[in-house]
User: Fold these one by one.
Assistant:
Number 1:
Amino acid sequence: IPRKIEVEQEKTCEPYLGSYLKLGGNNPVAEVRKLQSFLRDYEGYDLENTGIFGSKTHQVVIKFQEKYADDILAPWGMTKGTGWVYKTTKKKINELYCEEKR
């Protein structure tokens, strides 16, 4: 009698953030809310979920970037955060979010 072998597939995680975000940018409110929620709930920063990428969000993003400087800033040859949620910042947020969901 053949045995049924089940192979557990690795869970896939959809990217949490889908947009690049920055102070003064035309930022989607829903994406800014997700960013703010992540920074508050997963990283422990004191940040309101307003949906507006203001100076407080900008400053917290800089702190986040500098906390994970090896992954976010070093690939660009930088040591100081910019506050822009661009390729490596978005990638790190998505990675951390997916790790929490596993």
Number 2:
Amino acid sequence: MKKPSKLKYPNFEAKYPWLSILFKAYYRNDVGIYKELKIFTKESRRKIACKKGCFTCCLNPVVPITLIELMGISWYISEIIDDFAIREQLKGQMLQNKETPVCPFLINNECSIYPIRPIACREFFMTGLPCRPNEDPIVSRPNDIWFPSRNIARKTAMELLSFYDFQTDTEKLRAYEAGYISQNSSDMHSIDWSQMISTMNLFETA
């Protein structure tokens, strides 16, 4: 696993201050996972099966997404992705989001929003063998799923909660323990992506 680096888009972060909060949360999450996976693979002598080219987990994902993550995705597909063909394919797939279990951002068997992918995607790892086509490892191999520690979840949430105007660490910790993040998340396939498509169109005509 490659050592993570923090996303940096200074001009956009100046324009959208919330981006810095999201980038910091993602970096805190990625670094924590990187460290824990190194220890896990060394101590257990088990290998992580996930690698570039894997996409089985994108075919029927259960992905909770927070508001700030949705905003990050909207920014990325509207202002960063500049390939017209990919943008048009994304729009079509986002419109069909509730009609298919496949992630709307899976393009040519790759994640089109990989740098800004949600936390749920960032922390899902399989050990042992790669997932088979159409396999649901939650059912078939739950013991091969690697889970990050609660410590990573807490530290990541503490960063995200800055977006929701929790000021002190005490307020953030209380909100985290009360389940504020999960209570304010939406399942990927319940989301109406039409507004995001409208935002993409606005940037194309600007």
Number 3:
Amino acid sequence: PDGGRREALVVGAGPPDDGCLVALCYRGELPQSQADRELARALVAEAWTALQRVEARAELETMVAVLEASAAVTDTAGLDVAGLLRSLAAHAAVALGCQRTGIYLTAEHGSLRLGHLHGRESPPGEPDGAATAARVLAAGRAVLVRDTAEAAWLDGPWAAAAGALSVYGHPLAVADRAVGVLLAAQTSAGSAGFTALSGQVAEALARHGALAVENARHHAEQQAAVQRLQELDQMKEDYVAGIAHDLQAPLTGLRGFVATLRRLDDRLAVGERHEYLDVMERQIRRITGLVEDMVVGARLESGGFELAELEAVDLAAIAHHVIELLPPDHRARLQLHAQRHALVVGDRLHLERVVQNLIDNALRYAPHPTVITVTVGAGSEEARLVVEDRGPGIPEHLRAHMFGRHGRINPHRRGSSGLGLYIVRGIVAAHGGRIEVDTSAQGGSRFTVGLPRPSGEARTRADA
């Protein structure tokens, strides 16, 4: 008390290699007798033993807490990703003795997205805390903020304005690969804050949680891959069935007419014979068209599709030609309104496929005997082909997929390869054109194709 110097008795405690020295100060004179010195040594040894018991208990409690945290993660490892994140965040809050936790997962290009936030509902417009998680991930180690008021970089639920008092963050990693970030916040003023034990528990949670998240994500990816393969198998089966169906009708017709010609060869009039041959020729053209569709579809998918020699062709003449080649019962349902010299720059044969496929599509879906209108017109920059039917129409949610590789207007309908509209879109795109679909005035579907016109000089010569 008086600031003066005093003599002390220094006694060693613990093993020589890692022991310590204890200085015992007395108010009066130092004990001189052997009994007093033995008593001092006994007191120091007992104090050392008590300290060892405290440290052993703390170490045991730490091990129990780490094991409990690890076991909690292991128990939830079989859940789906969303369920795992909810459980992991809830267990982290209990293990760390805090009120708010969040799990952030790495996304494409190394960015982070919030997987689950426990203990708080984020108000609309508030940042989700991904910037804070990114800061922890960039540090590559545990980050402790004891006073959030002094860390302006904290955002969202981890900022002081959101009620967070102290924040602890730990990266989630498997080997050297970042999986995400675990964030925890103390929000209660009576909380003891994060301790050294918290750090060890968080490290265990991060280690086991990262493995569980990685396994769950791999499982989800595998499930998605399996589902995609199943869908592709079904699409392949539908495609093969559609091709077989499309080929069956013309082949059956050909077989029938060939058998008839053989049986009635001597009794058929010249006109009847020509009529039979015309029908057979149309069936052959139909089969040829299906084969061309398969070839063009394969080239479009592989990126090897190319247009042949481009020339100025009359879109109206192409429409006339395609309709003339149709069977009489199909021609009877078509109304053509064509403007002369609707010139475009293109590949004649491929443009015939565009017209043919759009008409075939309308004939397939529009109920018999409703009329299908084909209109060809020309503006200053493009020529337009419009095919309009009075069928069931196309729901809005199917329009984005109907031009796909195996797209169908009615996905539950069998008996078509699904290539028609896919090929139309590919050919039109190769010509630098556009294709749109909307609802017709009659309630069916209206397909509009726009194709670039030739230069003004070429158009003038053609019109003349």
Number 4:
Amino acid sequence: MRPRVSPYRNEAAVEWHVIEPLLAKLGYAKDDVAPKYPVVFQQGRKGRHHEADHAIFSGRPHGRQTSLFVAEAKRPGEPGWTTKDQAESYQHALRAPFLMIVDGETIEVWQYQSAGESECVFGPVPIAELDRHFADLSLILSKDAAIAHREKLRGPNARATAEDWSAYVNAELDRLDRFGFLVERSLTGAVVAPHVGPPGPSHLGSVDLTAHFPSGCAITAPSGFGKT
């Protein structure tokens, strides 16, 4: 049996006949795709410029904030690990969550992992069988899917999280709700600092406390008097 020979003999053929039509089918407009995108690994005069075969973005402006994946072409028979290592360096420099590698025979997709090695999430799939597996590829690399995945990678603002007490308040409400009952207390001698506002009522039911003091207050009483 004669070995199957790829019709794509070089990188240019792979880019032209496989990668570019595939990107269009995945929903990317021409403005989302930057061929031969320059990548700088070191800022400054000595920084060496490299080019990713194709850098794919969610839109303009092209940069780290909008990068989705890097698509690299390689000629059939070229060692896969050499292309992957080089392509991953472009992927990391652009902060792109995915990397697609296509040669004249197969296609595979790698997902960047912040801790540990990248993970292969699609393929290797023979190009001749790509139509049969296109739905699986779309779930990962279609424009909407890639944008959604990138948004999930964005961590919460640490300062906003530190200043947000809602999780604590909700946890306390859930904890107290387990008891299933509420004993109203009568509060007396409400005092308000002059710069905050007028004095509160001399007698106030505990259920009305937040209505009179929406910005918060402090309740003082001996232990066991039901302050909680």
